[in-house]
Structures are given as structure tokens and as C-alpha cells.
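Budget justification note: compute hours in this period were largely spent on complex prediction jobs such as the one shown. Inputs:
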Amino acid sequence: MNDEPLLQLDSVHAYYGQSHALQGVSLTVPSGSVVSLMGRNGVGKSTTLKSICGIVRAARGRILLRSEDVARLPAHVIARRGIALVPEDRRIFSSLTVRENILLAAGARAGAVEEALVWFPALKNYLGRAGDRLSGGEQQMLAIARALVASPTLVLIDEPLEGLAPIIAERIADTLRALRGKMTVVLVEQNLKWLTDVADYHYVMDHGQVVLHGTSPWLRANPALVEQYLGVTA
Amino acid sequence: MTGQSIINQFFLGLSTASIYVLVSLGLTMIFGMMNVLNFTHGVLYALGAYFGYLFATLTGNFWFALVAAPACVALIGVVIERTAIRPLSERRHLIQFLATYGVALVIEQVIRIVAGNDSYPVALPSVFAGSLSVGSVRFPAYRVFIVAAATFVCVALGALLGRTRIGALIRAVSEDPEMAALLRVNTGAVSTFVFAGGSALAALGGVLAAPIFSVYPSMGEELITVAFLVVTAGGLGSVGGTILASLVIGEAGSLGLLAVGKYSDVLAISLMAAVFVVFPAGIFGGWRRA
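Corresponding output:
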């Protein structure tokens, strides 16, 4: 793992209307690492990911990608800087086929579809199928494949295992494990045991702020603190 | 009423519907993509007719006018999209209506100042002066050309939307612009492209309609009513619905002449009203975004 920070959030504030969703979030994501955001529902984990990729505007604070502040850039420009998001609700284009979804993400790059099939061979049978005619697991595979074929430097993945059948979740979990060392990843996920296995470092959020952070061994060594903020033990 | 007169009226209705198709397709694409009610569309149709008249008169070349007029109006469309539409894209439809209606009034007044209030008859291109005979039925050649041109545009548009990368981009941005942006798509540029294309289609309708209806300042006002009726009856944002509704209103107006004489427009509007009763969201419902 390279210790140079790829991403730094410096006291980021964001709002949904009058609701103060992020109240000074600061965190660091070293290049090549897998970092997790933990916390109960509604504490600001997904909003943090959305602020990083520009679809929720940071009202104050800085979001530094390789020392460049991207907080005020449009979402498509941030994406072109190398940040890809796999959203919680997948957001597959239903009017596009699986192949078109992949090619759109890859900028029509030759070999993108084959690359996606290396990550998720199961998609091969559905390349001509419309996005809305996939199961939840297939949609999740496509959503992750779509992010990966964009050759990002940083992938933000929001609740990748949520609502999936165990066998599909395991397949997706294997793929995400395989990303370790290949690219920098920020994960939001409720499955704490899996997160502590897959991620190098963890940030625990509460009320729109980072309240704890540490490595997996540190989390396991402090079950009372983890239970206080997450309601479960590591 | 003879079989021949019915066939003739059906064909006239088809050619009128072809104009409606060209104009309404642009309008419904703009709504489907940008969720914007664009009342400048009628005046863009009129501008197409005026530019077409100007270029055809200056160069004596109808084909040049057929290409150059839509190109000029597409550029004007880009200016309108950037200055009057995009800043209002998140506002309520009533605000969009008022703003685009205001722009349309300004452009129409500019037309009146520059070209006057008179109507200009536009000569048919000589190549289309005659008619085509099928058995004992004769079809005016220019109207055959209009139907062929509209058919070509529909097929080309279908191929563009369904089989090309830009078509996939347009569908993606129409469906979920935020997710498209997250996949590095410049959604603003795609919207501008669609608005320019929709404007060019309106202008093409204007150029083609000019030899039949002449060119006059309020021609856009008259057509925008029909165009909105067509796109809402077809299902806002639905290409197939727009084509079908154009055919229904064009044929009702034309065949209705045989059945109810001068009240044929009433028949056409009544048919559209019946469509709204049966299909409140339009025939095909549309790609409408929540």
C-alpha cells in the first residue's frame, strides 16, 4: 500500500435543504488502500460518497484528490478525474442493454466489454438484455463492472451486498476482495465482519461527523466503542 | 364521396401529418431529454420557413435551403438553450412556459420588424411541379417528397437513437442525468445537442411547409398548438406516440373535410380530446421523468 493520500476530506459540510447532513467530515484515503465508512443508517455515509463525486455539493470544506480541490467541480469533471461511484440503488439504465451500459461507462473503449466479463463472467449471458430485466444481483454486478471499466483511480461503493441472495453476495464480495492492491476503494457496508476482513482502515460516522477511526485489529480490540456507535460488535 | 377522393384526401392528410411529425418529434425529444416545455418551438418552425425562403431566393437552390435553414436554426436553438432554457431546467413548468413563450414573442416580433407582416408565397421547386400517378390516382410530387422526407427522418432518428453511441448517451441522459454525469458524460452538452437537433427538425418542417402554406410571421403560433396537442396525446417524450398522434390529427383534419366539411378541425381536436379521456398520460405514456 502506498502511503501517499489519494483523497483527503477536510472539514466537509453538506446540506439537504435545511438539514445539515455532513458536519465537518475529515478523512484520508491513502493511494492503493481499501477504506470503509461505518455507522448506523442516516449518519452521513452515503452523503459523504455523494459529496466526493459531486452530486451533493459540499457547502464548506475541501475535497482534495491528489492535492486538487474538486469540491466545486461538476460531477462529470470529477468522474473524469478518476472517481467512480457504485450507488446504493445501482441506477442501471433500463433503456440501455447491458453491453450499452458497459460501453457508456467505458467511453466506448475497445475491449471494455471483455474486461467487464473478466470481473463478472455471469454477465456474458445478458449482454443484449435491457438493464431493467436483470435480477438484483445481476444489476449489482453490472453496476460494479460499469465503475471498473472506467479505469478509475478511486472507486466509491455504497452498500454493495445489500438485499442480495447469499450466493450472489459472496460472489460480489470475492470480486471486491480481488480489488485489494489493484485500486483505491472506499466502501460503505453494513456487514461489519466482512468489512473488517476486506478494508485496511475504517472511519465510523455519527451525526454527520467522523467519531472514530482505526484499523481492523483496533476495531476488534474495542468492541464497546464499536457497539456504542454501530449497535453491533466487530 | 368517391374512393378516389378518399385516397386523395388520405394522402393530403399523410403529407400534413408528415410536417406535424417533423415538428413534434423535436418537441417531444426536448421534453423527454430536458423535461422542459419549449414554447419557442413554433417560432423555430417559422424561422426555418423564413430562412428557407431567404436561402432559396438568394441561391435559387432549394436543396441548399433545405440543409442551410435547419443548420442556422439549430445554432439559434443552441443560444436559446444556453440562455433561456438551461437556467430554468429545475424550475416549474409554468415558469418554463412563461420564459419560452416570452422568447417566442420576441423572436416573432423580430421577424415582423425584419420581414414585415406580409405573407410570402414560396414557389414549388421545379423538380416537384408535377404529380405521380398510381393507377388512376394522382399524387402531387411535392407532397410525396414531404412524406418521403419525414419517413427518412423517422428512420434515421430511430437508427441514431437505437444504434449509435450518441443515441445511447441521449437515452441515458434522458433516463438518469445524474448517473450519466457520474459516468463522465457531459449532460449539458448532450442536452444542447438534442435541443439543437430538435430545433433543426422544427426548421426542416418549416422549410418543407413553406411552398404549401406560404411564409408569414404567425405561422409558428398556429403550429405550436397542434404540436403540443400531438406530443401530449402521443405521451410526452414518446417518439412512437408522437408519430401516431401526428397521423391521427393529420388524417382527421384531411379526411374530416369529406365528412364534415369546414368543421374538420373541430373533428380533429375532438378526436384528440377523446384520446385524453381514454389515455390521460397520452397514447404511449412516454419516457416522462418523475
